[in-house]
Amino acid sequence: MIIKYKAETTNYNKLIDFLNRRNIKFLKRTKKRARFLIIISEIRESLLKEIEDSFIPDNILKNERADEFLNKRRHINFKGRKQFLNDDFQIIAGPCSVENKEQMDEIGNILSDLDIKYIRGGAFKPRTSPYNFQGLEERGLELLKEQADKYDFEIITEVMDIKNLNLIKQYTDILQIGSRNMYNYSLLKEVGKLDKPVLLKRGMSANYEEFILAAEYIYEQGNENILLCERGIRTFEQRTRFTLDLMAVPILKKLADYPVIVDPSHGTGRWDLILPAAKAALSLGAQGIMIEVHPQPEMALSDGDQSLNPTNFKKLVKKINHNINLLGKK
Ligand code: PEP
Ligand code: MN
User: What percentage of the chain exceeds 70 in pLDDT?
Assistant: First the structure.
């Protein structure tokens, strides 16, 4: 539900105060002189009536009209264009970790053959054990850049720490904030000050409100170019690494105006589930998917079990492109 004030009024600030006192969560948006509060908490009809009577908004958008407002705004401004629009579907792909030049040459070649624009790869890796491969750091960034320069890819790589932000922002086109850092509000605020899109992954134990409000920490600092990425949550199920919460796609789209993408690789932890999960993400209205691919998954330094080999990756891209065309998407 979206509450609209056409122009500045003290009622707007009073309503914000009222909502905060009741712990009702909202997002702030402006368009020309109009102000909008996107209410993300559930509120009862009686409270809504009180809001209408006491704070006299100019309009309240509900259901289809609220969806329409959010869908129209859904995109990021990137390289002078609106991208990840509501009807777009982008494929982001690359290895879990950048490992060496040969690996990246092969990945670059595969992605460019398939007309994929976005290359991913971790140079600073958040690993569960400190004894696991931690990433090539700056050398990894250079290897990503080499492929991007050669094939005109956009780079997506993770920033784990404020102290590396200056370095990483010189190489990457989109900054990734990982699941483990979704609650790192100081890092969120720092990337919020930059003029670079942010791909924010859902914390593995975060609910939808927490996820959206984490994005709002970035937005509120001035950086409005944010992609939300569903990457699976912790449940009791052991057959998958995480439980890919696909309902996050339509629900996050009902609650907020950010594009939503899905990461079936971390969400399942199993290469054999990537295709069905990717197809589902497309059907559910996601704006894209992020997939791990490795020239030799069995040799990968991280996440080999969930990485597609080149043959299966090509099959997936063909199938997904076919489905994109069937749906009349771009
Ligand atoms: C990744 O995308 O490489 C990654 C580490 O993902 P997550 O933060 O979702 O675990
Ligand atoms: Mn990974």
Answer: 100
**DSSP code for 207:** -
The sign of the CA dihedral 107, 109, 112, 114 is: negative
- Ligand closest to 180 (CA) is 1
pTM of this prediction exceeds 0.90: yes
126 lines ligand 1 (CB under 6 A): yes
Can you give the pLDDT at residue 330? Answer: 78
Cα 327 from Cα 321, distance rounded (Å): 10
d(CA 185, CA 192): 10
CB of 122 shorter than 6 A to ligand 1: yes
Q: Could you say which DSSP state residue 280 is in?
A: H
| Of residues 265, 221, 264, 225, the one with CA closest to residue 246 | 264
Contacts of 64 (CB under 8 A, 6+ apart): none
Per the CB < 8 A criterion, the answer to whether 293 and 107 are in contact is yes
Distance 19 CA to ligand 2 centre (A): 39
42-78: per-residue pLDDT in tens?
999 999 999 999 999 999 999 999 999 999 999 999 9
Between CA 109 and CA 178 the distance in angstroms is 26
User: How far does the centroid of ligand 2 lie from the alpha carbon of residue 104, in Å?
Assistant: 15
Q: Where are the beta strands (DSSP E) in 40-132?
A: 59-61, 76-78, 81-83, 90-94, 118-120
Instruction: Kindly tell me if the per-residue pLDDT of 329 is higher than 90.
Output: no
Q: What is the mean pLDDT of residues 10-29?
A: 97
Residue 178 alpha carbon to ligand 1 centre in Å:
5
Q: What is the mean pLDDT of residues 94-109?
A: 98
Ligand nearest to the CA of 126: 1
